[in-house]
Design goal:
With about 500 residues, this protein is of the alpha+beta class. The protein folds into three domains: about 210 residues, Ankyrin repeat-containing domain (Serine Threonine Protein Phosphatase 5, Tetratricopeptide repeat, Alpha Horseshoe), CATH 1.25.40.20; about 140 residues, no CATH class; about 80 residues, no CATH class. It has 16 helices and 15 strands. The strands form four sheets. Strands 1-12-13-14-15 form a five-stranded antiparallel beta sheet, with no helix packed on it. Strands 2-11-10-3 form a four-stranded antiparallel beta sheet, with helices on one face. The protein has a three-stranded antiparallel beta sheet with strand order 4-5-6, with no helix packed on it.
Length: about 500
């Protein structure tokens, strides 16, 4: 009986051979008419050219969908690099993983970045591509976009890579990509970011001779007078690295505005105008784009009498509605605030010492100079009047919390009435660090600074315990619970 079944199986197999052979010949013929051969090389070509019809013919000819080229890439990598969305969709539906590793351990998302295909980057992210994976050299997609100078791809990836924005900005300064710096700062990268050795983006761009990056960083608020732990400015680094033309861009005598103590109202107007310039595409060193609209939530309101919590005029009429970015999809902390902008302003004057009733100040500029002042004197080139000169004991982090004697100079701006204390060994500031925050429900903006208290819609009282370049820390006074609100940037 078994022999009978064996004979029948052989007969059946032989009967199928002509049919299979005919089908294979048909596939080859169809591919030939379309300009392809049943080869790996043409499989990749069809993927790059977005020829889904040809890909279907390959599959009907039993071609392996996971075939690789000599470099180790799949057809999905080829489609991604070419921006062939239809082919990529077909390959994903045929079982290729969206984060399939290829040459250099790169994913299709990385291939799209390298191919400068920003729309494909957006599409792959929507298909679930992981922006946190690294290639064999340790580069994430965002860092690849920065290194290769792909500002459009940076714009797509920024909302998914908040924790990498400052490192990405430092890399952009290193490679001198002004267009990428523009894109990153619009999404919340901070010009106040620092390398582990204390260098700022401006310092890095300056010492590497990147004039366009230096100009842009200064335009968007980077301080020309900031120093590293060794006391070097960006201009001094440029000079030491053999870039006197860059130093000339940075080093100049301070303008009167740079020696001013702005009032809270002036600070709020300036920050508000900066954010709006991005939203409406005005020339403020930023790209033209509308900020994302956040889900409506209960509004928060400032406590009456707080001098720094008055609302900045709403700009809802000027802002266009767009879909919220995936990075904002998680529940927002309470209260429902969005940090849009951060600002700190160093004054190009430092306190060197105090002896009796006389203080010695160092004024930065093309030719730094030291001046001696007493109470009632004016800081040269400014509207700043010396109110008080003194030495006092104060606890310092530098001295591990122990009390140390410091030199203090109090100044007042005759134009605005604002006053500040400048202390030896500490950078002189024109104001406390401030953030421009936006009510997620109404779009109204508020100026926030450390120590400010306000109430949420539910009546709970909050304290702004800290304002940093990339986040704001808020504490609920009743429970002590702390919430961190990250900087989203004008576009974020």
């Amino acid at each position: 009986m078994n022999r009978i079944w064996e004979k029948l199986a052989v007969v059946f197999f032989l009967a199928l051979l002509p049919s299979c052979k005919k089908r294979g010949e048909t596939v080859k013929s169809d591919l030939g008419e379309a300009g392809y051969q049943l080869t790996t090389e043409d499989w990749f070509r069809a993927s790059r050219e977005n020829d889904v019809s040809a890909l279907k013919k390959f599959i009907s000819g039993k071609f392996a969908v996971d075939s690789r080229n000599a470099e180790g890439d799949s057809a999905l990598h080829a489609a991604a690099a070419a921006g062939a969305q239809g082919a990529a969709d077909f390959l994903l539906n045929r079982g290729l993983a969206v984060d399939l590793r290829g040459a250099e351990e790169r994913t299709p998302l990385m291939a799209a970045v390298m191919g400068d295909q920003s729309e494909m980057v957006r599409w792959l992210l929507r298909q679930g591509a992981d922006p946190g994976l690294k290639d064999k050299d340790g580069f994430k997609p965002l860092m690849l976009a920065v290194r290769e100078g792909r500002p459009a791809a940076v714009g797509e990836l920024a909302a998914y890579s908040r924790e990498d924005l400052d490192p990405a900005l430092l890399l952009a300064a290193l490679v001198g990509r002004a267009d990428v710096i523009d894109s990153l700062t619009n999404f919340g990268a901070s010009v106040y970011a620092r390398m582990e050795d204390g260098r700022s983006p401006l310092m890095i761009a300056a010492e590497n001779g990147h004039a366009d990056a230096v100009k842009l960083l200064i335009d968007i608020g980077a301080s020309r007078f900031t120093t590293d732990p060794d006391g070097r400015t960006a201009a001094e680094m440029a000079t030491a690295s053999g870039h006197p033309e860059i130093a000339a861009l940075i080093f100049r005598d301070p303008l009167p505005a740079e020696l001013a103590l702005e009032s809270p109202i002036e600070i709020a107007k300036s920050m508000d105008a900066f954010v709006d310039a991005v939203a409406v595409g005005a020339d403020a060193g930023n790209a033209s784009v509308s900020p994302a609209t956040l889900p409506p939530r209960a509004a928060s309101k400032p406590i009456e009498g707080e001098t720094l919590s008055g609302p900045v005029a709403s700009r809802q009429a000027q802002r266009k509605s767009s879909a919220a970015s995936p990075a904002l999809a998680e529940p927002l902390p309470m209260p429902p605030l969005v940090m849009r902008h951060y600002r700190e302003k160093e004054v190009p004057v430092s306190v060197k010492s105090v002896s009796g009733v006389t203080a010695t100040l160092r004024v930065a500029g093309a030719a730094p100079r030291e001046v001696s002042v007493r109470a009632g004197d004016t800081v040269p080139g400014s509207n700043l009047v010396i109110v008080r000169v003194q030495r006092r004991m104060e606890h310092s982090k530098v001295n591990l919390g122990r009390a140390a004697e410091i030199s203090v100079v109090e100044v007042r701006d005759r134009s605005t009435g604002s006053t500040r204390e400048w202390i030896s060994g500490v950078a002189s500031k024109a104001h406390d660090p401030v953030a421009l925050v936006e009510d997620a429900a109404t779009g109204k903006r508020y100026l926030a600074s450390p120590g400010q208290r306000f109430k949420g819609a539910d009546g709970a009282e909050y304290l702004i315990s800290d304002v940093r370049p990339n986040q704001m820390v808020i504490q609920e006074t009743a429970s002590g619970a702390v919430q961190t609100i990250p900087l989203r940037g004008p576009r974020g």
